[in-house]
């Protein structure tokens, strides 16, 4: 290969890498202004929900941001304004208007304080579900607001709840639109104080920030914690399904009818996503790992393992999986191992295990 050909090859390689980077990072630009005065607002925080990607506006209210995936949600927040969440489907330029908050001061009675303590206890029972509570701290639960009756409990906040997860090495900002807890018995709602185990549903937007500087030993520990947390997770399953490597990554999938060969049916394959439908109302998914907490390749003989069962229950809708193993919206119910994650103990959607 002569020098000119080699040089051309070199530039072609660089061009391909730049093209790949452009494909995986979609540019969002815009300006944030006051709803009434149209004046630019500086120091507005913007982030891609579920990711580690965020920025703030400059003196002119302008911002530039690259999202690692589409579709996504762009969250726009300022301490003096109402938060805004924008669904994003393509790279674009945005003009965003924010409305000012009315900060009122309310008197709190002794009865109100006691009720708040009860509400906080119930909130933490489910928000920190299945976690090591010594590793996770909520730094500002005073911003939480609650609504409850005999059957339903709701929590929400107008500013982000800040969670410090020492185990995974993230500070997580969570803007909660609705954290709903209820209890059911034979398909019907049961009283919240019935003593039965409840279920929760969360509608929220997450922003992940690295906690700071770590020494080599701490960094290795956090890296291992993140990898172990990822293995066997719903995102690990989605990624394996997308790549067609379920058994290679430790997942044994069976429909209610064991003879059914394909529990999930691919209905649409696009550039960066795939759509699937259920081939059975209930699908069993069992994750197998070795004693080092790594997935087992089920195509080969194995011994010495642990397994974790889950059930996927169809809601009669198709579901989408992006190329990075995430889903814009979960369109089915998950029970068991993969359905019991605490909202405070999650990894960002742009996390990639090595």
Protein architecture, described:
This protein is an alpha+beta fold and 354 residues long. It folds into three domains: 3-98, Immunoglobulin-like (Sandwich); 110-210; 225-339, no CATH class. The chain is 18% helix and 38% strand. It is built from four helices and 21 strands. The radius of gyration is 23 Å and the shape is globular. It starts with a helix and ends in an 18-residue tail after the last strand.
Envelope shape:
globular
Q: Fraction of residues in helices?
A: 10-25%
Number of strands: 21
| Continuous helix count | 4
Low-confidence stretches: 1-23
H-E order: HEEEEEEEHEEEEEEEHHEEEEEEE
Binned strand content: 35-45%
Summarize the biggest pleated sheet.
7 strands, antiparallel
Rg is 23 Å
Report how far apart the termini are: 35 Å
List the helices and strands and how they pair.
Elements: H1 3-24, E1 26-34, E2 45-48, E3 54-56, E4 62-67, E5 72-78, E6 81-88, E7 92-98, H2 110-127, E8 136-138, E9 145-148, E10 152-156, E11 161-165, E12 170-185, E13 188-190, E14 199-210, H3 216-230, H4 234-243, E15 251-255, E16 264-269, E17 273-278, E18 282-289, E19 306-314, E20 319-322, E21 332-336
Can you give keywords for this protein?
Immunoglobulin-like, 354 residues, disordered N terminus, globular, 3 domains, alpha+beta, 4 helices, 7-stranded antiparallel sheet, 4-stranded antiparallel sheet
């Amino acid at each position: 290969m002569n020098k000119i050909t080699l040089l051309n090859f070199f530039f072609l390689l660089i061009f391909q890498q730049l093209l790949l980077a452009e494909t995986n990072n979609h540019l969002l630009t815009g300006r944030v202004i006051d709803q009434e005065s149209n004046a630019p607002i500086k120091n507005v925080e913007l982030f891609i929900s579920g990711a580690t990607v965020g920025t703030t506006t400059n003196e002119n209210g302008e911002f530039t941001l690259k999202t690692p995936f589409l579709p996504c949600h762009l969250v726009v927040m300022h301490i003096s304004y109402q938060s805004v969440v924008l669904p994003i489907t393509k790279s674009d330029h945005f003009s965003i208007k924010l409305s000012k908050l009315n900060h009122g001061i309310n008197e709190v009675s002794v009865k109100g304080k006691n009720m708040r303590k009860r509400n906080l206890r119930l909130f933490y029972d489910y928000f920190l579900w299945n976690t090591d509570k010594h590793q996770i701290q909520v730094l500002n639960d005073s911003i939480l607001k609650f609504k409850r009756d005999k059957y339903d409990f709701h929590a929400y906040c107008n500013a982000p709840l800040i969670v410090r997860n020492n185990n995974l090495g993230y500070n997580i900002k969570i803007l909660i639109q609705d954290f709903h807890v209820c209890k059911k018995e034979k398909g019907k709602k049961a009283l919240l104080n019935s003593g039965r185990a409840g279920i929760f549903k969360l509608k929220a937007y997450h922003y992940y920030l690295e906690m700071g500087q770590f020494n080599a030993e701490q960094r290795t520990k956090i890296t291992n914690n993140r990898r172990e947390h990822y293995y066997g997770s719903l995102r690990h399953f989605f990624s394996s399904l997308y790549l067609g490597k379920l058994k290679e990554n430790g997942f044994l999938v069976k429909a209610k009818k064991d003879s059914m060969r394909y529990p999930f049916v691919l209905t649409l394959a696009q550039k960066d996503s795939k759509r699937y439908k259920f081939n059975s109302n209930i699908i069993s998914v069992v994750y197998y790992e070795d004693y080092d907490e790594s997935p087992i390749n089920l195509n080969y003989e194995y011994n010495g393992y642990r397994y974790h069962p889950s059930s996927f229950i169809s809601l009669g809708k198709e579901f989408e999986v992006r190329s990075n193993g995430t889903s814009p919206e979960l369109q089915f119910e998950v029970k068991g191992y993969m359905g019991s994650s605490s909202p405070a103990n999650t990894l960002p959607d742009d996390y990639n295990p090595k």
